[in-house]
Amino acid sequence: MDSHPGPPTSQVSPLASDQERDLAVEVLSQACSDGRLGLEDFSLRLESALSARTVGELAQLTVDLSSGPGALAAPARAGRGANWFIAVMASTVRRGRWHLRPSSRAVAVMGECVLDLRQVEVEARHSHILAVAVMGSIQVIVPEGIDVDLSGAAVMGSKDLLGGSTRPLPGSPSIHVTCCALMGEVQVRVRAPQETPLSDGRDPNLAVASQALRRHRHRRRFRDD
User: Fold this and answer.
1) Which strand (E) or helix (H) includes residue 149?
2) Three-point CA angle 117, 122, 125, nearest 5°
3) Nearest to residue 50, comparing CAs of 153, 177, 171, 133?
4) Residue 62 DSSP SS3
5) Global confidence as pTM
6) Terminus-to-terminus CA distance in the chain, angstroms?
7) Are 111 and 89 contacting, i.e. CB atoms less than 8 angstroms apart?
């Protein structure tokens, strides 16, 4: 009698447990704190880890973050002072890949200061930004899934925290913005991760739909908890 064996065992990835998902989240969180992952990359991987069904999917998210006995030690970062961003009757914009120190200062006097954190590499699990706007404006852009908070005072000015329809992802770094707006504006905007071009010939609309699906799974997971 002919038999029809199933797929080879080596090709079957076991279903992931909650404990294995938690371990993957911890690896991603540590990599973000170490500066190996930017906030945007961290947010996307974390969403995928929370919705992963198999151990193989989790492994793909962390395979480039493992460090064996022969791995090189990360060099110590020089300079532990605060980041300073100053715009006096001018415009200062910081975007792309850069390091955000645990303490930062943004000052706009009759000028504009924009800090885009979507690809930033944080140096600590908790970061603080002091934003002072005097007849000027300061805008801080944070990717979805990151724990962000805004406090402070506005005198004849405004302070706003916009966006952020999804809850912060567990294990994400936290960013606290303290503002002082004197006839000025301080705005913190939570935005979806930037779209990146595909190099494998896939339809870009599928990438957008995939990101939307991951965000939907993340929201559903929290509603079910």
Assistant:
1) strand 147-155
2) 120
3) 171
4) helix
5) 0.61
6) 49
7) yes
Domain boundaries, the chain: 83-191
Sheet holding 137-143: strands in order across?
A: 91-94, 112-116, 137-143, 185-191, 158-162
Backbone angles phi, psi at 186, to 5 degrees: -125, 125
User: CA-CA distances (angstroms) from residue 103 to 119, 155, 173?
Assistant: 18, 24, 14
Taking the C-alpha atoms of residue 76 and residue 34, their distance in angstroms, rounded to an integer, is 11
- How do strand 137-143 and strand 158-162 relate by DSSP bridges? unpaired
Share of the chain above pLDDT 70, in %: 71
Mean pLDDT of 53-58: 86
pLDDT at 168: 76
- Distance of alpha carbon 109 from alpha carbon 184, whole angstroms: 9
Q: Where are the alpha helices (DSSP H) in 63-203?
A: none
The answer to whether residue 159 scores a pLDDT higher than 80 is: yes
What is the C-alpha to C-alpha distance for residues 15 and 23, in angstroms, rounded to an integer? Answer: 14
Structure-token match 């006097």, residue found: 109
